[in-house]
Design goal:
heterodimer; A: 229 residues; alpha+beta; Nuclear Transport Factor 2, Chain: A; five-stranded antiparallel sheet; 54% helix; 15% strand; globular; B: 259 residues; two-stranded antiparallel ribbon; 10 helices; 2 strands
């Protein structure tokens, strides 16, 4: 009976198990404090591939050095995200793309609440997995882009201490303030795409406010749930 | 008692207990998932089987078998999977990749002690995951509607056909003559796979607003990515573009593009 499940369940397993790494790269650029020569402080002037490399390495370095982060200390993650990561990630664009056409119906106030709650959900969900990425290494895969491109994909793979390399890719957009990440994929599963139909369902049932409420409720549930390993 | 009868008994107990799946009012409206009502019920059923039987067994396996042994077991199964990988690479018209799979098989079976150690990957021969569903995809077949198998979980119509072909043609375990041995190996392979999924579960529980949709969409994206070997062409949707005049543009619902 179970014989043919192997390949598909294997894939699902890796999707979840390592999604953390990618989102950490988004949410964990705190490493600036422990900065080395390739710190993201100088990344605004760098190409998008160099920015991703610097961010990824800094995240992993920071996790290796910080006990509180390894144990998934949410306040610490949040504070660091607020302080350090926002310059490199466009959460609003990420939210807008995931919300899709519902974004047009949303008032500016609703938009900012959506962005805030979505970001909180991502940070909260993935914080628990921080300790699993300790021994991982990030490698850039071949990067092809024209100097004039303003929207690029940077492809990386994360090499864990055991198991196969994990494909993690980023989409970045060039802005006046430098390159900004607005989507991330683990093994080809893009974050934005994966939330689209869930968000669309919520909006069709309860409008934009319904989606905001669902996100807020989920965040509240996660906050109240007893912390498990 | 016959295995099938025992299974039937377990299933009856599971199905007989607990509530049914919640079906949203717009179920089936997403073009990728016209069978959503059925799929949600089947997902609920699979989850119940999982909670009652599969997960406890897998958890015990994960808790009691040391990591190196689990790595070895998983590697052995993945080593024999290089046979279907090679067959599918050939069918996809990629003989070089097929040769690479065969080299992997030879190296890992010998130097890697019957596949226990994946030395071929360390030597730079990349491991791939091919199956007949992907081969059909490369031949141009679209995925068709999403489809949840009893027990086996997420699939599509195309991948369901692929699975059947894989099972009877290229699954090496299928050629083991001794039925008890074969069934034990199927069982171990399943438990090994299920145990590997445990870390992912909590993440999905937390991250998903709707677990069913989350898993469905991840599965569909993942399959698409595999068919293109990690380089799928980008799907641009008209709604992705930022909207220049947010406050003044009235809402114009558009049909979601199908893919």
């Amino acid at each position: 009976m179970p014989s043919v499940t192997m390949s598909n369940t294997m894939k699902m397993k890796r999707i979840g198990a390592v999604a953390a790494i990618a989102v950490l790269a988004l949410t964990g650029a705190q490493a600036q404090g422990t900065a080395s020569a390739n710190a993201p402080a100088s990344a605004a002037a760098q190409g998008p591939d160099e920015l991703v490399r610097a961010l990824s390495n800094d995240v992993l370095d920071a996790i290796k050095k910080d006990q509180a982060l390894q144990s998934g200390d949410l306040n610490r993650l949040n504070a660091l995200v607020d302080e350090k990561i926002l310059p490199y990630v466009n959460f609003e664009k990420m939210t807008q793309l995931a919300v899709g056409r519902g974004w047009r119906q949303a008032t500016p106030e609703q938009r900012s609440r959506l962005t805030k709650e979505f970001r909180a959900l991502l940070v909260r969900t993935y914080s628990g997995a921080v300790s699993t990425v300790k021994d991982h290494q990030v490698q850039l895969r071949p990067f092809r882009a024209q100097p004039t491109d303003t929207d690029v994909m940077v492809r990386t793979q994360v090499v864990p201490s055991r198991g196969d390399p994990i494909q993690i890719d980023y989409r970045l957009e060039k802005t006046d303030a430098g390159w900004k990440i607005y989507d991330v994929s683990v093994l080809g599963v893009w974050l934005v795409e994966n939330y689209k139909s869930q968000f669309a369902s919520e909006i069709s049932q309860g409008g934009v406010d319904g989606l905001i409420k669902s996100l807020a409720d989920r965040n509240r549930q996660l906050a109240e749930a007893p912390k498990k390993s | 008692m016959h295995f099938g009868l025992r299974l039937l008994a377990v299933v009856t107990v599971i199905v007989g207990t607990g509530a049914c799946a919640t079906i949203p009012p717009d179920a089936g409206s997403n073009p990728v998932d016209p069978f959503e009502r059925y799929n949600r019920h089947m997902t609920e059923f699979n989850d119940r089987v999982d909670r009652a039987v599969l997960k406890p067994v897998a958890q015990a396996y994960a808790n009691n078998v040391p990591d190196p042994v689990r790595d070895c077991v998983g590697n052995i199964f993945r080593n024999v999977a290089d046979v279907p990988n090679a067959v599918n690479h050939l069918l996809q018209g990629r003989p070089a990749s097929a040769v690479s799979d065969i080299c992997r098989l030879v190296i890992n079976t010998t130097v890697g002690v019957l596949g226990c150690f994946d030395v071929a990957s360390k030597a730079g021969l990349e491991k791939s995951e091919e199956d007949f569903g992907q081969t059909l995809g490369r031949w141009g077949a679209g995925p068709g509607p999403y489809f949840v198998w009893p027990f086996l979980g997420p699939s599509t119509v195309r991948d369901a056909i692929g699975r059947v072909v894989d099972f009877f043609n290229v699954d090496p375990l299928y050629y083991i003559d001794s039925v008890p041995t074969r069934n034990v190996l199927y069982g171990i392979r399943f438990i090994d796979t299920r145990a590997g999924l445990i870390p992912a579960e909590k993440l999905i529980e937390g991250a998903a607003l709707d677990r069913y949709q989350f898993i469905r969409d991840a599965f569909l994206q993942r399959r698409r990515n595999l068919i293109y070997d990690g380089n799928p062409p980008r799907e641009r949707e008209p709604d992705e573009e930022p909207d220049p005049n947010p406050a003044t543009v009235p809402d114009q619902p558009k049909a979601e593009p199908t893919r």
